[in-house]
Specification:
heterodimer; A: 203 residues; mainly alpha; 3 helices; 88% helix; B: 249 residues; 0% strand
Amino acid sequence: MARSAVSITRKAASLAMSSALALPLMAMVAPGARAVGMPQLDFANPLVTGQVIWGGVIFLVLYLLLSRSALPKVEKVLATRRLTIENDLDIAHRAKAHADTAVNDLHQARRSAMAEAQANVEKVVEDARLAALRQTQEMNARLAEDIRQAEARVAAARAQALGSLRQIADETAQVLVHQVSGISVPGDVLAGRVNDAATAHGF
Amino acid sequence: MAAGSTIDALGQFELHPMLGGLGQSLHFSQSPVMMIVASILVLAFLYVGMRPAAVVPGRLQAAAEICYDFIYNMAVDTIGPEGRAFFPFVFTLFFFILAGNYLGLLPFSFAFTSHVAVTLALALLVFVLSVIVSLKAQGAKFFAHFMPAGAPVALAPLLVPIEILSFLSRPVSLSIRLFANMVAGHVMLEMFAAFTIMLAGLGLVGDVLAVGPVVINIALMALELLVGALQAYVFAILTCIYLREAVAH
């Protein structure tokens, strides 16, 4: 950039110089024009050399004021801005880090809550399953007990019924004998005969 | 100034004593007056611009900061880390010349950069500074640069004088460049302005033709605005380049 600027300046300078060189020509062509020496080269004039001294003093004062006061002022403002921006960025970064942590915590909490809820659901389901199983077993046991008792009652009733059957057979045999033959057979004889007959038939 | 059919293009560069007899005895001409005005403008620009000292700057503050950054970057990028020490000097140089160039474009004003004595003084200041910095930073090795590295020793009698001449021509080229640019610009402005006045004296046709030089002068003013900034930049960047060579080795 500097190089191109320099080349542009050189071109501009050469243009200007050629124009300046053309000036005497133009002055000659122009009617009544007069060419005088360059006042800048009149070093006998104390004003020409005097401006160097004045220029030196003014330049020095300007340099001192700029370097000691004006430029540090600008630098201070720029530094303050840099610091402010850095601080603000720091705060923003910290806030972002906090927010990220909070989001992570939230996700973590959500995950653990979900896991806990899942575990609770599984536990409830398992409990329910176990309770149902236990209930079923209890019911089965109760039913088995009821069946067992019922069977016992049936067996007792059957035994009782079978015990009464002999008496009915004895009485039926006595009535039949009496009505057929008109003979009254003593009870114990008849019972002995009925017993024999039952034994013979496998009762 | 142009008077009638006479063109005095160089009269604008004449110095006149200011403040009467006191100015005459102190050799105080309009040139130092414009230097003081330029300095005050530069200082006022920074002081007034930076007065708010706001984190979010206004226009003037932003302009002052841009100028600061521009010269700071130029100094540090060109010279290197040591450029920070020379930054105030480069800043002063750039804005002193820039303000001088631009002030000279105002009517009834004077461009102190159109005087070779001033530009040569500035160039010599830069030259002497770069020599002092070179001697301080490099010591006696500074003189080794007058013999290009890798060149045959047999060519030394030819090369060394050329290098020395090249080195010594720096302040000359630095000062003549600025001086010639400013003089040429102001002479051209004066010439075309004089053409306008001369043509205007030729009656109706001349009145019409006189518009031409005015248009050219408008274009020249734009060119001078560019040249004024560019010359200040060239002076500052060359100063930076010379200082980089001084501290680089």
